[in-house]
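Much of what follows relies on a compact textual record of a protein's fold. With that in mind, consider the following protein and its fold in token form.
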Amino acid sequence: LHLAERGKPTALPGFDEGAFHVQDLAAQLAVEALSAQPGMRVLDACAAPGGKTLGLMSAVGDTGEVWAVDVDARRLAKVTELVETLAPSAAGWHALAVDAASLPEDLGLFDAILLDAPCSATGILRRQPDIKTHRRDEDIAPLVALQARLLDALFLRLRPGARLLYATCSVLRDENERQVAAFTARTPSARLLPLPARFGVDTGNGTQRFPGDEDGDGFFYALLERS
């Protein structure tokens, strides 16, 4: 559902009862791009605040399993709160406060992984213009390094033939298509899969949406398969 007029989500009928969750279109498309199926075992890395976790739970159904992971325990508590409000009877989901690049070995392998990576957030400037006042050039290199570390570690947690969706709410090439190009160059078992045109502009190394596309945020998606 797309509301034609802006307003406070908390004022909408049904919000307090957990009838729905408000999320930008571009963020919702990330779950769709991963295309998790019923019965799958799925990891939501960097899961807070939890909107994508809910989407993945809906996709895998009662027969699937979703692990919501975030390094920040306080932010992960928000995911738990959201799930308990909107899907209080849901089974087969777990929350784990840990660095997604250092998952416990006994967690095993996954059928699908969603990595909505920490980024510059340059794709959401229209909603959070203060980003322009506190983001600096020197912030980007550490973010790119963190994204690469997460990509390298999480890709190894895929079963052969399984897929990882790398996503950011950024419009910067270093975080997006250049990041993916570098990853596939150093990872022979990684194959970049195409996404339909409605997900955005094909950059050759992923798909880019720009702020305002269908009144959504700027977002990047790269669907990677482990051979």
